[in-house]
Write a structure and sequence with these properties.
The structure is a single chain. The protein is α+β, with helices and mostly antiparallel strands. Among the domains are: 300 residues, Alpha/Beta hydrolase fold, catalytic domain (Rossmann fold); 94 residues. The protein has 15 helices and 39 strands. The strands form nine sheets. It has an eight-stranded mixed beta sheet with strand order 32-33-35-34-36-37-38-39, with helices on both faces. Strands 5, 6, 7, 8 and 9 form a five-stranded antiparallel beta sheet that branches. A hairpin with a 7-residue loop joins strand 28 and strand 29. Helix 3 packs antiparallel against helix 15. The protein is globular and about 65 Å long.
């Protein structure tokens, strides 16, 4: 592409400015995650935050209340069926790190089931002198006796993998084992796995994930594993996996070229054969079918299918060149696909209609798909359905939750009447005087932005109600209602109002809703959030001194921008595990994987818009900012703690009054166990109680 001399000079100047700014960052030393000097700085600020907030009577009350909720034996023990047993991972007051356990269906339906402990993580951590956090299991069907157990140190994304034998309840000596890394591993057979991990220099992508997939045989060293597929260094990831569905066994490679584009390969005679689909589409082979979820319009076979649609085609026919599709879901202006779950003979479709879930059962018979709505579901709330065991039956678990109704679990089977209620979370707070309503705010460009409001039934419209507005707005993640006992017990029952904004960047209305706030259009998400805040004030729900905002991760970036863009609008901010330095984010941990969301700061034309929403570069000494609490985790190996550290250091240097707390464990979730989670919750709600009343 040819550029004019002026344009080229401008690009060079911008590049030079970008480079100089990065080199001159006086707080870059705080990116040393476990550097002694950095940790000393962290400890000092942690002490200040704890000293200020923990002295409040509110803090002890909130911490104790939250811990009691988290440790309660009455919360739902959600399960996964493997073979004849139903498995659960459980934490409570006496099992801080947790128990991996199992029971039968008959026992599970009882109020107090008898559980068989398979792995005691607390005992394991003590015996090995490690701060283990259980990170999941992958068990080999159909016997489900051999499992690949993932264990994380302190809750980080990186974990170790160790083979475990369920009958003996012990790790397999000389079995499959991976050292700490961001790994992916999948069973092929009892003696073979597909694996992607850190194989040494050059084997990981710039995002910190596996670049190479290999086939590994039992009894051989990892170094002897044979390469199945090799991606490029600037890919996001390469995953190899097996589908062991009886009669439809297959192996596949998923190459993530960006966060939102991928290539799917089936291994045919050990060779990867590429699936001919849009890179932006998500393709899911299942039994004889391939399901394709579109992120953009697709013209194929003489027809155009819209972005957000779900298509079905026979996989074998597709691989032979046939391009015949059945449309299983058609998106609408305010309607999107929330998910789907295949059972043995059906497909459960979950639609989001104006941020309200609707479920349908799809059945293929005599060459056609039929569609039947699941009836008796609530108007508000988040509803999800998942197959119990798609290889064996049409049974499904149904979960219903909303802001004020405790989460309830049902067990049903398609074609056999209404599902059976089997578990329910107790009411951890009195919701009798509370109500939920849905509203819309008009954003700067006229787009209507929905939001949920939860608060007292007889709310005084005097602008004085302490209100917390929560937002995320990124990565096609939908903000839907859910029962938060801690929010109810610690805020709503104390007279507070809680609001959740469905801003652009999320997935509430499908791919276009997300894509409308990507990269240079990121400002749309921020304008939407501001519009909701201003609407709350216009409706006299609250006012600036009583309006707090909260968000984490990408929502932490949102908080940082609310701080720098509209400091006059908010009374207090809680900014959790945030991105804040948008000039260096792609060089820190998994940051490179998000350039499809935000942009590439090394490209001058993209840094030109990125710098506009880089809070670290826009905070100023001569501006009055609302009081802000920044929290993060030392063990967060997804969003680097340096973001929050550097922002706080800069703001304090400028003379601003901010609080900072960094949990030494916890990963991206911010907490590694119930005690830490209760403590972090108490910090946030105590802060809001002090600042907004």
């Amino acid at each position: 592409m040819r550029r004019s001399g002026i344009a080229l000079s401008l690009m060079i100047a911008l590049a030079a400015a970008t480079s100089a700014t990065a080199a001159d960052d006086p707080h870059q030393w705080l990116e040393g995650v476990e550097d002694d000097k950095a940790l000393s700085w962290v400890k000092s600020l942690n002490d200040d935050a704890v000293d200020e907030l923990s002295r409040s009577g509110d803090f002890k009350r909130i911490e104790a209340s939250t811990r009691a909720i988290l440790d309660s034996d009455d919360k739902i023990a959600f399960v996964d069926k493997m073979g004849d047993y139903y498995y659960n991972f459980w934490r409570d007051a006496t099992h801080e790190r947790g128990l991996w356990r199992r029971t039968t269906l008959a026992e599970y339906k009882k109020d107090e089931p008898q559980w068989e402990t398979i792995l005691d993580v607390d005992a394991l951590a003590k015996a090995e002198g490690e701060n283990w956090v259980f990170a999941g299991s992958n068990c080999l069907q159909p016997k489900y006796e051999r499992c690949l157990i993932s264990l994380s140190r302190g809750g980080a994304d990186a974990d170790v993998v160790r083979e475990f034998d369920i009958p003996s309840k012990s790790f397999v000596k000389g079995g499959f084992e991976l050292p700490e890394a961001k790994s992916q591993i999948s069973w092929v057979s009892e003696n073979e796995v597909l694996v992607g991990t850190d194989f040494g220099a050059g084997s990981m992508t710039s995002s910190g994930y596996a670049r190479i997939a290999k086939r590994w045989q039992r009894g051989t060293p990892l170094s002897a594993a044979s390469v199945v597929y090799e991606g490029k260094p600037d890919d996001v990831w390469v995953w190899a996996y097996s589908d062991l569905t009886p009669g439809f066994e297959r192996q596949a490679i998923l190459r993530g070229t960006t966060f939102y584009t991928n290539e799917l390969y089936l291994l045919v005679d050990g060779k990867p054969v590429k699936i001919d689909k849009q890179d932006s589409a998500e393709a899911t082979p299942y039994r004889e079918w391939m399901l394709i979820n579109l992120r953009e319009d697709w013209t194929v076979g003489g027809k155009t299918y819209p972005s957000g649609a779900l298509l079905a085609t026979k996989l074998d026919a597709f691989m032979k060149g046939e391009r015949k599709f059945d449309v299983l879901f058609q998106p609408g202006e305010r309607k999107s696909l929330a998910g789907f779950s295949p059972t043995r003979n059906h497909l459960i479709l979950n639609e989001l209609d104006n941020v309200k879930n609707r479920l349908y059962v799809l059945t293929y018979k005599d060459g056609e798909w039929s569609r039947e709505a699941m009836s008796g579901l609530p108007e508000f709330g988040t509803i999800s359905a998942s197959a119990v065991d798609s290889d064996e039956s049409d049974a499904y678990f149904l979960t219903i939750t909303d802001f004020l109704t405790p989460t309830t679990l049902y067990l049903g089977e398609i074609g056999k009447g209404a599902p059976e209620k089997i578990k329910s979370t107790p009411a951890f707070f009195d919701a009798s005087n509370l109500q939920v309503s849905q509203h819309e705010a008009k954003s700067a460009d006229g787009t209507l932005i929905p939001y949920f409001q939860v608060g007292p039934k007889n709310l005084a419209l005097d602008g004085k109600n302490p209100t917390v507005l929560y937002g995320y707005g990124g990565f096609e993640v939908s903000m839907t209602p859910s029962y938060s006992a801690a929010t109810g017990a610690n805020w709503l029952t104390k007279g507070g109002v809680y609001v959740v904004a469905n801003i652009r960047g999320g997935g509430e209305f499908g791919p276009k809703w997300h894509q409308s706030a990507l990269k240079a259009n990121r400002n749309k998400a921020y304008e939407d959030f501001i519009a909701v805040a201003e609407d709350l004030i216009a409706r006299k729900i609250t006012s600036t001194p009583h309006l707090g905002i909260q968000g984490g991760s990408n929502g932490g970036l949102l908080m940082g921008n609310m701080l720098t863009m509209r400091p006059d609008l908010f009374g207090a901010i809680v900014c959790q595990v945030p991105l804040l330095d948008m000039q260096r984010y792609h060089t820190l941990l998994a940051g490179a994987s998000w350039m499809a969301e935000y942009g590439d700061p090394d490209k001058p034309e993209e840094w030109a818009f990125l710098q506009k929403y880089s809070p670290y570069h826009n905070v100023k000494a001569d501006t009055k900012y609302p009081r802000t609490l920044f929290t993060t985790s030392t063990r967060d190996d997804r969003v680097h703690p340096g973001h929050a550290r550097k922002m706080v250091a800069k703001m304090k240097e400028q003379g601003h009054d901010v609080l900072y707390y960094e949990n030494m464990e916890g990963g991206h979730g911010g907490a590694a166990n119930n005690a830490q989670r209760a403590f972090m919750t108490a910090l946030a709600w105590t802060f809001f109680a002090r600042e907004l009343r």
